Amino acid sequence: MQERKSSxxxxxxxxxxxxxxxxxxxxxxxxxxxxxxxxxxxIEPTYFIKRQIIWFGVGVILMLAAMSxxxxxxxxxxxxxxxxxxxxxxxxHFFGTSKKxxxxxxxxxxxxxxxxxxVKIFVIIALAHLLYTITKTPREKSFKSDFLVxxxxxxxxxxxxxxxxxxxxxxxxxxxxxxxxxxxxxxGVTYRMIGLLATLVISFIAFLVWLxxxxxxxxxxxxxxxxxxxxxxxxxxxxxxGGEGYQLYQxxxxxxxxxLYGSGFTQGAKTHSxxxxxxxxxxxxxxxxxxxxFVGATVLIVVYFLLxxxxxxxxxxxxxxxxxxxxxxxxxLFVFQIFQNIGMTVGLMPITGLALPFISYxxxxxxxxxxxxxxxxxxxxxxxxxxxxEED
Amino acid sequence: MNEKKNRxxxxxxxxxxxxxxxFLLFSAxxxxxxxxxxxxxxEFQEQLERTVNISAPIEAPxxxxxxxxxxxxxxxxxLFTVTFTNRHTPQQEMLETAEKLNKYISLTLPRINDxxxxxxxxxxxxxxxxxxxxxxxxxELELSNSDAHTERIxxxxxxxxxxxxxxxxxxxxxxxxxxxxxxxxxHKIKRGITYEEAALIMENLEELPGIDIIRDSDRVxxxxxxLRSIFGxxxxxxxxEIDFYLAxxxxxxxxxxxxxxxxxxxxxxxxxxxxxxxxxxGSGNFLRNPQEQLGSRGNDLVLTFDMExxxxxxxxxxxxxxxxxxxxxGDPDAYVVxxxxxxxxxxxxxxYNNDQGTFTHAYEPGSAIKGVTVLAGLDTGVVSTNTxxxxxxxxxxxxxxxxSHRPLGYVDVYSALEQxxxxxxxxxxxxxxxxxPGVSGTNWGNFYRGYDILRSYYNQFxxxxxxxxxxxxxxxxIGTDSxxxxxLLFLSFGQFDTYTPLQLAQYVSTLxxxxxxxxxxxxxxxxxxxxxxxxxxxxxxxxEPKVLNKVDIDESYMDSVRRGFYQVVYxxxxxxxxxxxxxEPAGKTGTAQVTIxxxxxxxxxxxxxxxxxxPYDNPEVAISVVVPGMHVDExxxxxxISKEVFDAYFELKENRRGPxxxxxxxxxxxxxxxxxxxxxxxxxx
Lengths: 392, 685
Fold this sequence. Notes:
The complex is a heterodimer of chains A (392) and B (685). With 392 residues, chain A is mainly alpha-helical. In chain A, 69% of the residues lie in helices and 3% in strands.
């Protein structure tokens, strides 16, 4: 065994710094975005940021915890963790509590949590382990073997995907889908296979559209009414301003009014009007767009981009394929959440209830993200750097 | 080995693809942001500005009114008021809201407008209403919609109107009030509802679209009717003045001062309105968090009045008038104005029936104005201080005989004033126009000039012109009909032109202070709201006394008249000897013979008057007293009132206890003193 640099020295400080920047942006945006809520409930203006700081603290501890165990050992836990996740999802399905028309929460005494959040991590570990075992032994390059690989990945990914979808929580389900996609990409299947899968997905969507137009009674059994109205609102917010389009229209108006430089911190008229629901949680990007303008919003996106870039670099330099797959899964996790959340606030994507990683107020989602970063850093500090090229 | 290499080599490529996808997605986001924020940003910004700045005024209370010693005279009380905002509300919705609102409060109208009631009926019974004139009939007659509507309204029978149930008639006033306000502005439906009613309505606001409860304030008059008519009223903006108020930043539904002090000092008393900034979206929905900017009370007025003196004078007038109530030929009445001659400050202003009458009603004052007639004679040189004239009865052609109250023999300037000689004044008037009775070569030809000369002197003292008081609607008195020469003689001793009690007070002040005609005033200072109700706030504006003109008459002549006024009180044969007192007043009595039309009968009566000041050598207070329409046999009422008013003024200088609130008496203090006396007696025993 080679002499390894101390893990302390190998820590990716750039990534940690970017994380810190995101936390700062988060606190500013939550402070401003929660003002309408704190005012109307008559609670102190720092109520939400105080709690968010506590969540950050908890998140950092869990991140350190996720770093402390050698990720190679995760392989041993992947099947038990995955099983626990599935049991939790089953419990949610039968005994979960409903909020706002979705059954996503489990109540254990005073604690209430969303198992689907943690299942994301479990799925990443399970899929990484699966890919590691598949690629450990040389594989025949054929369409048939590709098909087998994809089939195995879907067999692991689809059950949690389906359970989460019927909660309903389309956003989180799609996150799982995004993780599956990045795993399939990394599995080394041929582009032909990837093209085929893409065609299947697109055909399915086209089929849905066709159903909607011709057999609406069947369609409405597949896509729920509130999801459909969200899609309508996304396609034409102005026409649906009385319903689902309202939130989106308000958000776009607020962001647009921010223009190049924004209205300034706590100066956003829309932000402080109390018209946008979920402003400090799902719609927090509105606050950044309005108060810090195009410049501020772009800075945030660039920070995210750099964060993902660091992760790609870590994946690159990792000489343990299991590690690379883990990091790739995390990239899939983050990319989709970031794109979907910002995309819905600016009208690029339909509205789904997804938090903006590290920025939105809220516990479960933040903790999952922090654990994911912990896993990435775990891979990072345990990567062996050799003096002279790579050797196996 | 080769295969192994392949396996490892695909990873970097796939990672690059993944990274490229990230790049694409993020680029899409930035592109989209660019479109929203940079390309369309300005448009959104405008939309936002357009929709956010919708605000409604919050009523702020008017300024308080204090007397010169800081006693609150006019206060505000907070009210709960129900408002309705008509946002082009459909009639049917209004009826529903009215129905619900009627569960909490009831409303009555002062009078019911027939046309409105018909409209209401038509709304309640649309089908029957439609049948009055069917659409087909209307189109046959080629009637426009509005004409057809009018036809239908007129076709409603009285029976049908009478058939409206009691309940429907209860709803009607609400519906009517809902319809009279301006669109989009809260209209007050009912002021001063109880706290319980307000709470009930607040709890159910959601089912009452357009209804709101606001905090409103109403004037409270601490001393009930005292000076009430001087304070004036607060009410809705009169329709014909709406443009003026709108131009000055008022809202159509605002309350403004509509008369007297409230009107005159509207800009001072007006509360600085707060604003309720409502965040409103493009479709006109009010949003969750309106921001309240509270207004502040308007500035306060400190009046020149001494409320305690005012109350004392009221008491004096009430007692004196009621004692001789049966002796009034007309309605019992009396006026007193108490003024500071050097500042024009009005300390008290009392009318038996109405305080405002002191400057809106005018009377013939009689001899009280002789001071100016004498000055006119002296100043023009037609008489001198040595001129002696025989007071006798003068008979002129086509005129009733003129005499003093009794023949006085030879009188000079001083005794003419002391004993109130009419003939001396008549002589001055005749000499002014160059006519001497019984002397050939003299005639009345110039009599017009006599009016002009005499009136110009009277005007210098404020008689017959505006006094310049800081209140609207001042009456100047009547002095128009000057086409007969004989009337000139009556003018000279105060039995022709009429003057207000306030003009008389200004005249005597001007005489007493050395010839400065100062505008009477009721407002001394304007102050910002104080920290508490009983504490005056910081001074905003000190109003300076305003000298309107300086009388253009030799100082020595004025001295002579003042000496005459002193003799009225202190001379052996003075007509005002009753007034003698340690504070040494001077003045002039007056009795004007008038006829009063009572139920078609013309009856003889006297206006009793007094003008004076005290002390005579250093005047600090001037008064005018008018007791109109007294029976000719009853004398001395004005003198008694004057004596008591002077007494009250000088007593208050020594000892003030503050004005009495309604229902309070000073006896409580007296009782205490009695108790103490009794205790002392007991001790002695």
